[in-house]
Amino acid sequence: MIENGVFVDEYSLSIVLKACSRMGFVKYGMQVHGLLRKLGFGSDVFLQNYLISMYVRCGCVEYGHQVFDRMSMRDSVSYNTMIDGYLKCGMLDVACGLFDFMPREMRNLISWNAMLTGYATALFDMIPKKDVVSWAIMVDGYAKIGKIDIARRYFDDMPERDVISCNAIWLMAELGYIEEGIALHCYIEENGFHVAGKLGVASIDMYAKCGSVDSAMDVFNDIQEKTVDHWNAMIGGVRTIMKERNLKKIVGSSRIELQGIVHEFSVGDKSSYPAHSGELGVPGCPFANSRVEHV
């Protein structure tokens, strides 16, 4: 851009810094840092935060600290990025000190979550003998706050895995991380874990969300003892696909007999749909073998 005489602004510099951060190109990031100061953007809080993030993610927390110290004005992003960087380097005491120094009005949910994560990690490292529950708690906690890469790393580092750990990591799929969920389902099948209970519900829901009704049906059919939750997950998945295909429910009511109990859904109840694949327009609908009545 510069060689072609194109004007470089804050936005274009931030994109380059973000790319350097993701790729781990700290040397190129340093060059951008020098260019940034040369062009007179050295005091821009927005770009300074990107610089801190780039250095921290590349493992150069000391350079990030230098940028932070030289800032004439800081915002919550500046503090949170540095705190997160210290925690990733295992510097809990330094992170705690910066958190205490951080103006109270700047502390937000991200700040508190970062500190909670730091203390949880420190406590986990102090456990002399960890069991599968200890590992699963860490996986579950990191997944819930959106740190999927760290959650997956803990899962991969588990010396032993069972259905508890699989339940924890499946939260990734429930949070919308479909690729991770599908990869985990393959792991579960390869290792002979039984997909039932909440894990079965999450599996059906995940495949339905990505539009794979056949895969959802395979999971549904493999569950030996189905509960109402499994049926609701499958019905809800079909409902979602029907909406995407602009299909309408036939007016009336439906009755489904499950384990000797008849569940009735009346007109306007969106939780039930016709049982036959032809009526749904959804190939492979699993309800054809169940006793269903339409009024």
TrEMBL record:
The keyword Cell division does not apply. Pfam families: PPR, PPR_2. The keyword Repressor does not apply. PPR repeats lie at residues 75-105, 131-165. GO terms for biological process: RNA modification. Gene3D superfamilies: Tetratricopeptide repeat domain. This is Pentatricopeptide repeat-containing protein. Keywords: Repeat. GO terms for molecular function: RNA binding. It comes from Anisodus tanguticus.
